[in-house]
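Good day; I would like, with your permission, to put a structural problem before you. What I wish to show you is a protein chain and, alongside it, a tokenised description of its three-dimensional fold. Here, with my thanks, is the record as I have it:
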Amino acid sequence: MKQKVITLDEFIVKRQMEFEFASGELSGLLRDLGLASKIIHREVNKAGLVDILGSVGNTNVHGETQKKLDVFADEAFISCLKNSGECAAVASEENDNIIVFEEREQAKYVVALDPLDGSSNIDVNVSVGTIFSIYRRLDENRAITDDDFLQPGVNQVAAGYIIYGSSTMLVYTTGHGVNGFTLDPSIGEFCLSHPNITTPTDGNIYSINHGYRWHYSDGVKKYIDHCINSDGLREKPYSMRYIGSMVADIHRNLIKGGIFMYPRSKEKPLGKLRLLYECNPLSFVVEQAGGTAINGRKRIMELQPTELHQTCPIFMGSPQMVEMLHNCVITHNAAKKEG
């Protein structure tokens, strides 16, 4: 007998009572994010056929050139969330300031978005993704401010990502494990394909931009030496896999086991990836799947954000690999102080 197909909508409704404040709003928000991702899926899959590739000639708040699909994705998600009625405001990596939906100010939740992670890869047909994070407002009786978004990651009520690749998948958590849904284009529905995702405790894949190796701290260099087995602790080195699209790298390592690293460097002393839009939501997913996420010393989700576009270094993945990285960093710092 064929196993019954469970759609994203069915799954969300079935699991709604797991939410601390179960009243339908959060379920509606997740469905709205799923709807927006279907729109992005459609555009990504025909990007080579229409005038949607390339740059619009503008830069975002981080000084990065905005791609046409970046702008389209940003507008699509904001539009779906605004029309839903369940979202009071959005903070997007593509916008300087938060976007408050004045007609929805009584809504309970706010959403932080990276609308299209890895968009520089779209021109060469490499997987890209969307990252999202949902927080409950600090006080529903006062005006919405940046503070509603500047909460530590442990306050997230839901987070996840959508990866647009050979198939489109939506992976999310509400703090009760991680589940993945694959879009079936024939029926236009996300269907449960990866229930209860658990990342391996150890792995043999490491993901880092080797081109900047000599710009990293000595502790990170020491761990890279461990990965390439220059310390001779294993029979062979780990495999280096780096796509340059964070969602794609995290998704692969989540399934197969591995570590993703984006350290601080001489050029980026505070790191490059955004705490609010990338690090916190993906850390929530990785932790719920049994993995670990740190900034080299501290747990990512315990960091207190101070700015909407704050950056930080990040190391996340299989717990044994992250622990080894942590030990390398701590050991080096101790030796440096003694020296």
